[in-house]
Amino acid sequence: MFGELLLxxxxxxGGVEAVWVLVVSFLIFFMQPGFALLEAGQVRAKNAGxxxxxxxxxxxxGVLVFFAVGAGVSAVAGFLTTPETAVDVGAAFSxxxxxxxxxxxxxxxxxxxxxxxxxxxxxxxxxxxxxYVFYVIALVAVxxxxxxGFAWGGDGLLSSAGYLGQLIGNTLGSDPVGYKDFAGATVVxxxxxxxxxxAAYMVGPRKGRFDENxxxxxxxxxxxxxxxxxxxxxxxGWYAFNVGTQATVLSVEGGAVTAxxxxxxxxxxxxxxxxxxAGMVGSTLVTTFWEGKPDPLFGANGLLAGLVAxxxxxxxxxxxxxxxxxxxxxxxTPLVYRWVVESLGIDDVCGVFAVHGSAGFIGTILIPxxxxxxxxxxxxxxxxxxxxxxxxxxxxxxxAVLLVADSVFxxxxxxxxxxxxxxxxxxxxxxxxxxxxxxxxxxxxGVATTAPTDDDVATDGGVPATDTTSAExxxxxxxxxxxxxxxxxxxxxxxxxxxxxx
Amino acid sequence: MSDDSxxxxxxEMVVAIVRPERLGDIKTALAEVGAxxxxxxxxxxxxxxxxxxxxxxxxxxxxDLHQKTRIECVVADVPAEDVVDAIAGAAETGEAGDGKIxxxxxxxxxxxxxxxxxxxxV
Lengths: 502, 122
What we know:
The complex is a heterodimer. Chain A is mainly alpha-helical. Chain A contains 19 helices and 2 strands. Chain A folds into 2 domains: 2-261 and 378-408, Ammonium transporter fold (Orthogonal Bundle), CATH 1.10.3430; 441-502, no CATH class. Chain A has helices spanning 2-29, 31-41, 48-80, 89-92, 102-122, 129-152, 163-171, 185-203, 224-243, 262-290, 296-311, 319-342, 352-365, 367-370, 377-408, 415-420, 422-427, 475-482, 489-501, and strands at residues 250-253, 256-260. In chain A, strands 1-2 form a two-stranded antiparallel sheet. By secondary structure, chain B is of the alpha+beta class. The A-B interface holds A 216-221, 287, 290-291, 293, 295, 297-298, 334, 337-338, 341, 351, 443-446, 458-465, 475 and B 43-46, 51, 53-67.
């Protein structure tokens, strides 16, 4: 009788939690269309198809690579960095043989693919598809799994059982500490964000993003609506990302289901909600007072940054802490974005470092200050150390992989191909074929990308306010003859020149 | 082309660049002077209207090509001056950027469905 009850309780717990984890995995998968819309909206129409192709590839190729390699590498990384732990390759690659590991594998896979798909937003509009695919394979096979193994494997370098956790505990005379990143603010998001920043640096800025003085010149994306709708899809999936990480929903004791973990689930759900609201409000306050107008794109970015900032902290902090972290995440978004552009000179198209990178690191490092378990110096040291490990590993491996990719494929498309748009040259398609062949045209009538020989022409086709000399001339003709950089105009210009000679 | 077209009436095209939001009134005014047929296209251009400042992610840029609507109206029996007056009256706001109107001679016309040419075609 007693045995039967025990079996029942375990089966109930196992069944309920398996269904819960499956449902949240499907919802985390729904972040993929969110990313696709968010990134596509922030690029020009001539590159929209390329961006969604990269997102499709992240997911599709990524799950295959994570099944074959990544999940096992993650476990091995945990074994190798934990004292007195043997490397058990069979256990590491249990997804090949053990049906009971498959739900857990899927749950891990949707997190890995979230990290992978962040990078495409940073390198959009100029990175070659082949080099990008090569990088995604490396990220899903090694770069991300090593970090998730360090932090989440149960053991691993950043856990309380790992070398670093033991070392920090011993040095500071406390118990060994484990790195706190509940749902992956750094393990997933900051990793993706700083990988994107590194990749954007390696690939170089888009043509026309900086003038010859190095001053930034904006290249507006083609759909604010896509960007904002994608953001809201992402926020929806984020509930599963954070709340679903609270995978234990029932307690079993003495053969009976004794408790429902409603408080833990509620804390994560509440903190996630408050932080996203605070992030959007924080970012909007900054743009309103700094730029003079509330900016919807930065508002959307701030909402996501608030989510990123709370992702590691949501199970650990009070609701007041969640609001504070959300505000910090939102407020830093426009500031860090501008710093990346103006001080670092890096063209991070979708601002993935400001949204996923810095927000993730800051939110995770601040956890000890708002921890309901109380402040601990050892924990703070562990948070900083863990963030440094994740950041350093990601930057170095990303650079190494991209150096290889550069020598094999070349990191970016040719100048001419960039001007024509990656949709046409990489995939032979147009995202909006009925809007005409000249995808360089922008709604105000300027020519967006055909101005490489005249750096005074802004990317929107307008002339900077300081340039008054050419205002009297015929600007349309000047633009055409000095910028023969689309496939359509090149032959015409050549013919015209030939005609004049004869 | 055809002998019929060699009459005293001349074909003229009135091309107007106007504010998009004035198009409805202009259509009404054209119908009132007996010249309801027109072709409309979206265009961008620069004239006396001052440039606008655009903003993306807090970075400013200037937009000096303004959205305009281009109206083409070919007339024969109705005097072009009436058409110009109708458009100008309906398009005017008094602010810089109201647009311009041009009158061009047209050498011939051909109606595709009927084969009519010259003044009969418009």
